[in-house]
From TrEMBL:
Gene transcribed to yield this protein: hemL
Biological-process GO terms, alphabetical: protoporphyrinogen IX biosynthetic process
Cofactor dependency: pyridoxal 5'-phosphate
Catalysed transformations (reactions): (S)-4-amino-5-oxopentanoate = 5-aminolevulinate
EC number in record: 5.4.3.8
Swiss-Prot/TrEMBL keywords: Cytoplasm, Isomerase, Porphyrin biosynthesis, Pyridoxal phosphate
Keyword Transcription regulation attributed: no
GO MF: glutamate-1-semialdehyde 2,1-aminomutase activity; pyridoxal phosphate binding; transaminase activity
Entry's family note: Belongs to the class-III pyridoxal-phosphate-dependent aminotransferase family. HemL subfamily.
Modified residues (N6-(pyridoxal phosphate)lysine): K261
InterPro entries reported for this sequence: 4pyrrol_synth_GluAld_NH2Trfase (IPR004639), Aminotrans_3 (IPR005814), Aminotrans_3_PPA_site (IPR049704), PyrdxlP-dep_Trfase (IPR015424), PyrdxlP-dep_Trfase_major (IPR015421), PyrdxlP-dep_Trfase_small (IPR015422)
The name this protein goes by in its record: Glutamate-1-semialdehyde 2,1-aminomutase
């Protein structure tokens, strides 16, 4: 019996479902990880995988990036938690503000979900209104007001509204189709009580779904005309698609931004930033409460400072390399699936892509759900056997990192060939 199977049998007894986050589970049991380095991750049986899950997008610079390890090691010798302000927090805030011109002030916290929860509370506090508009399939964390028709693990597990979640909360969340501006306009016309609109500017939680031309600019225009704060959830896209996130990539300024993941390349930190007049509503001087023991902890802050500095230093090479790799890979994969006469779609941008087994374009929640998820599972399982680790769900994304080499990608493409053969048969 494999070490992972043995560990999973024990884990099930002490951890619900044996995992600490739902998408980590896959059939028949997930592999247990021993270590990771660069582009690779090793399981408990010492099998090496090329990692394309990459901490669900966090590891833009690869595992154990030397600059980050150095600065965290340095901080470890000075203490791990102070719960008092530090000069490093100022340095990090200035770096974030420097990369995101829409951000005048920024508050640090720990997880993406915490950041979106605070962003929504800020929008409500600012407008003194109740309702939030979110888009179908966008995932903003595991809290009640956004766990409505959400993507990621909740779509994977077929959960539209979680048991234990309050209807009183979710009824204040209005859900609109992604890429459907008319639906948004209709919803705004019908409801006077809208506190904010939250969106993933690139939808990376239903597989990968790109915003159609003008979708984001129309969204910005309409929210501005109606005095509705626009929240860009850049938990995935921040630092990953550009040093200033999707808002830099598309040239759009939201009112509030959330970020996490690639902000620190694998440490626990998130941030909410935005216009001064909104951010100044946060407690203690403002009346919108937000607090956390671990917020701005010196370990995560040192990792984030080092990540942003590294990204800013190598940005000219980094993004063009990742885009080139992605274009070559996605095009080759597309050709391969076409030659094999497998109905498919490939959506890709920046350092992210996903394949869907369907002959219809994947542009929203429903078209993503209509793709053949069973075939995707076959693809995932064959890739895994071949030493390629992608996230185990159709509703996640394949993430490239700076640590991947051309050789890794060639090997991965060979593995996709075997995986597509298994899908066809
Ligand atoms: C776009 C987006 N927002 C928010 C979150 C929630 O982040 P966390 O899992 O750190 O709470 C995620 C997680 O994948 C995400 O993809």
């Amino acid at each position: 019996m494999s070490e992972s199977k043995k560990l999973f049998n024990i884990a099930k007894k002490v951890i619900p479902s044996g995992v600490n986050s739902p998408v980590r589970y896959f059939e028949p049991y997930p592999f247990f990880t021993k270590k990771a380095n660069g582009a690779y991750i090793w399981d408990a049986d010492n099998k090496r995988y090329i990692d394309f899950c990459n901490g669900y997008g966090a590891l833009l610079l690869g595992h154990r990036r030397k600059e980050i390890i150095k600065s965290v090691s340095n901080q470890l010798s000075k203490g791990t938690l102070y719960c008092t302000p530090t000069e490093s927090e100022i340095e990090l805030s200035k770096l974030i503000i420097g990369n995101f011109p829409s951000v005048d002030k920024v508050r640090l916290m720990n997880t993406g979900g915490e950041a979106t929860m605070t962003a929504i509370r800020l929008a409500r506090g600012f407008t003194k209104k109740k309702k939030i508009i979110k888009f179908e399939g966008c995932y903003h964390g595991a809290h009640d007001s956004v766990l409505v028709k959400a993507g990621s693990g909740s779509a994977h597990n077929g959960i539209s509204v979680s048991d234990g979640g309050l209807d009183e909360v979710s009824k204040n969340t209005l859900v609109v189709e992604y890429n459907n501006i008319e639906d948004l306009q209709k919803t705004i016309r019908k409801n006077k009580d809208i506190a904010g609109v939250i969106v993933e500017p690139i939808l990376a939680n239903m597989g990968l779904i790109l915003p159609e031309k003008n979708f984001l600019s129309d969204l910005r225009k309409i929210t501005k005309e109606n005095n509705i704060p626009l929240i860009f959830d850049e938990v995935v896209t921040g630092f990953r698609v550009a040093p200033g996130g999707a808002q830099e990539h598309f040239g759009i300024k939201p009112d509030i931004t959330t970020m996490a993941k690639a902000l620190s390349n694998g440490f626990t930190i998130s941030a909410v930033g935005g216009k001064k007049e909104i951010m100044d509503l946060l407690s203690p001087r403002g009346k919108v409460y937000q607090a956390s023991t671990f917020a701005g902890n010196p370990i995560s802050v040192s990792a984030a400072i080092s990540s942003i500095k590294t990204i800013n230093k190598i940005k000219n090479k980094l993004y063009s390399k990742l885009e080139r790799f992605n274009l070559l890979f996605s095009t080759a994969l597309d050709d391969m699936a076409t030659d094999m006469k497998i109905p498919h779609q490939i959506n890709f941008t920046a350092s992210m892509f996903q394949i869907f087994f369907t002959n219809k374009p994947v542009v929203d929640y429903q078209s993503s759900k209509n793709a053949n998820a069973k075939k995707f599972q076959k693809l995932f399982q064959t890739l895994l056997k071949k030493g390629i680790f992608i996230a185990p769900s159709q509703f996640e994304v394949v993430f490239l990192s700076d640590a991947h080499t051309q050789t890794d990608l060639n090997k991965t493409l060979d593995a996709y060939h075997s995986a597509l053969t298994s899908v066809k048969n």
